[in-house]
Write a structure and sequence with these properties.
8-stranded mixed sheet, 338 residues, Spore Coat Polysaccharide Biosynthesis Protein SpsA, Chain A, single chain, alpha/beta, 2 domains, globular
């Protein structure tokens, strides 16, 4: 198959994932698909990740390519692979996750005969030492090609579900910031502004590994990187203003915004109280007040938000000291779809 005939580009972000990368790559090449390309972006790894990636590129030269780059964070791995992508469609795979090979073959076959902006497939949450859960963000009655609308996409889309038309990503100027967490949210939401059609399949493709120490949605990581979450809310607020009124994209961005805000506010209250942290709390409140529809969604989504959004400066130190115990935030993982 000619380079220009690739149907799907799979971008694998790989930073120090030597224990997992082989499984990720095997899941891509197992079906023997010649119509895909796999771009492994080695983000300055210091372990055996580069050697493993290069070995697969040598073994599968018509499918696997490796981009070695200096460490810049998750967003820059997407920027690097999108710039070199040859496939008509493009999707992400983290280096510590994997695909179901049969579901991948089904997706590629469907994309070969489709002309849509985004394909939606279920994913499986694989919790280490725990149960697994299938997450399907499309209506069960929907199959094949449709207009993108809430009756078809019934849950908030995540990067684990989405395969985008490559040119749509480029037209949306998807270029993600360096050294910031949560950039996968921008990857999903930015192209939605220009998207109108979707392909719905119900074969669970992405196998999402949860429960590893240090994952970005752990409580400790949320507190340590709360400025990244504030930056995400800021970017989503700007994107919300660009969405056509009453469009699917506007509803989707609003959903992401309210969800991130109801994670952000308890996170700020879970950090040790300080004047600096109180300023951030007030920033969150001011942002919500400036977007009444989003504020109402936050109220509806979270009892914690309703309580914390009304805490006064005088009572803030006392609430911040007891909040982690009251909310149980240090005893569990925050999950974006909780």
């Amino acid at each position: 198959m000619d380079k220009a005939d690739k149907i799907l580009t799979i971008s694998i972000a790989a930073y120090n994932v030597e224990a997992y990368l082989e499984q990720a790559l095997e899941s891509c090449v197992a079906s023997g698909l010649s119509s895909i390309e796999v771009l492994v972006v080695d983000d300055g790894s210091t372990d055996d990740t580069p050697r493993i990636a290069d070995a697969y590129a040598e073994r599968y030269p018509h499918i696997v390519r490796v981009i070695h780059k200096q460490n810049g964070g998750y967003g820059t791995t997407i920027n690097a692979s999108l710039a070199q992508a040859r496939g008509r469609y493009y999707r992400l795979l983290d280096g510590d996750d994997w695909f179901d090979p049969q579901a991948l073959a089904t997706l590629v076959d469907a994309l070969a005969n489709a002309n849509v902006d985004v394909a939606i497939t279920p994913y499986v949450e694989r919790i280490e030492d725990g149960p697994s859960r299938v997450v399907d963000q499309a209506a069960q009655t929907a199959r094949g090609c449709h207009q993108l609308r809430p009756s078809i996409i019934t849950e908030r889309l995540s990067m684990h579900s989405c395969t985008f038309r490559t040119d749509l990503l480029r037209e949306a100027h998807v270029e993600l910031p360096a050294r910031r967490l949560y950039t996968d949210t921008l990857f999903v939401t930015k192209p939605l502004v220009g998207a109108s059609t979707c392909l719905v399949l119900h074969d669970a493709l992405y196998q999402y590994r949860l429960g590893r120490d240090g994952q970005s949605m752990s409580v400790q990581s949320l507190i340590a990187h709360h400025e990244d979450l504030i930056a995400l809310v800021t970017d989503l607020g700007e994107l919300y203003g660009e969405c056509p009124q009453d469009s699917y994209a506007q509803a989707a961005v609003a959903d992401w915004l309210s969800m991130d805000l109801v994670i952000l506010l308890p996170t700020l209250f879970s950090a040790p109280p300080s004047d600096e942290m109180w300023e951030r709390i007030e920033w969150v409140r001011a942002f919500a007040n400036g977007h009444p529809q989003i504020a109402r969604a936050c109220d509806a989504r979270s009892k914690s938000w309703r309580k914390l959004a009304r805490v006064s400066r005088r009572t803030y130190p006392a609430v911040a000291r007891v909040w982690p115990t009251l909310d149980g935030i240090r005893r569990r993982k925050w999950r974006r779809d909780a």
